[in-house]
């Protein structure tokens, strides 16, 4: 969509709240999305193909581990990371998901909880897109309740033995390094498991109706032998993985608005050129109501994401605030994508147009990093002081 349409749609002048550097970063990622993602995303989605060939390009773009400092990481602000997530997800949720798994989950776990040797070994090449990481937390019977995980790491005289299973692990079958969370005699700990380790099997989950340009896997660990230096020394208990999840959830609050904006812009452009009963669809009151309702929620959701970003950069962002952003923005983005499809009519069910692809992808986004129900319970506990997760 043209810049003029984007400006017309920025009714609240939200761009005026961004710095020159933030706007420049956004344009850089927007251009990358336009040149490297949009022309091929329909075919990637149709073929269920993750374009591994663009991973080094994403490293060169500076969006892998974007918010992290040192070890070859870009060290950009939270708002800049959010803007990048928005632009990438305007292309496709699967591409933004890769950046999130790589940076917000796997790299954050190593950066926050790893030893100096682990950081030096893995982070520079992950930031460059030379190595791919994954984050193995969810299990077949423990999705929203990771405290119930059964994957277990037993300490031995010469290291650890890991047994168990994980499910819906993004990138696992192509990852060079896995961050695996497991129970131990001392509670939940994180471990680094390099690709090719004996006893590890990662199988892509197929076929899928969502996130088709991404990779999610079942992973099994059968008598996996790890050395004593495999453990992430700084991570103990659920605080380890939850810290990483909050980084990912923050990015989702921005990214979902990218998918919503792209859906809206596709519908707006179509409505302006598609003739029905001798006039453009955009000239009918019902169509204008749909477009206005979409725009209102996109503007509100983008303003919410920006507020969260400013709080994060100031060091004041709380988990319940992230939950509110993730819950609201993904929920509204799905509504917008579905409504945009109705303006496209029958043409909207083809991959020539993005809204239904976005809607399908957003069903996964809505589920991972905490379902609507989980974030509702987080907010419910915050406002009532009563935890209602069990019982």
From TrEMBL:
Pfam families noted in UniProt: Acyl-CoA_dh_1, Acyl-CoA_dh_M, Acyl-CoA_dh_N
TM regions (residue ranges): none
Cofactor: FAD
First-level EC class: oxidoreductase
The enzyme's E.C. designation: 1.3.8.6
Catalysis: reaction(s): glutaryl-CoA + oxidized [electron-transfer flavoprotein] + 2 H(+) = (2E)-butenoyl-CoA + reduced [electron-transfer flavoprotein] + CO2
InterPro entries given in the database record: Acyl-CoA_DH_CS (IPR006089), Acyl-CoA_Oxase/DH_mid-dom (IPR006091), Acyl-CoA_Oxase/DH_mid-dom_sf (IPR046373), AcylCo_DH-like_C (IPR036250), AcylCo_DH/oxidase_C (IPR009075), AcylCoA_DH/ox_N (IPR013786), AcylCoA_DH/ox_N_sf (IPR037069), AcylCoA_DH/oxidase_NM_dom_sf (IPR009100)
Protein keywords: FAD, Flavoprotein, Oxidoreductase, Transit peptide
Domain of life according to the entry: Bacteria
Pathway, per record: Amino-acid metabolism; tryptophan metabolism; Amino-acid metabolism; lysine degradation
GO MF annotation terms: glutaryl-CoA dehydrogenase activity
UniProt entry tagged with the keyword rRNA-binding: no
Gene3D superfamilies to which the protein is assigned, alphabetical: Acyl-CoA dehydrogenase/oxidase, N-terminal domain, Butyryl-CoA Dehydrogenase, subunit A, domain 2, Butyryl-CoA Dehydrogenase, subunit A, domain 3
Domain Cyclic nucleotide-binding: 88-163
Family, per entry: Belongs to the acyl-CoA dehydrogenase family.
The name this protein goes by in its record: glutaryl-CoA dehydrogenase (ETF)
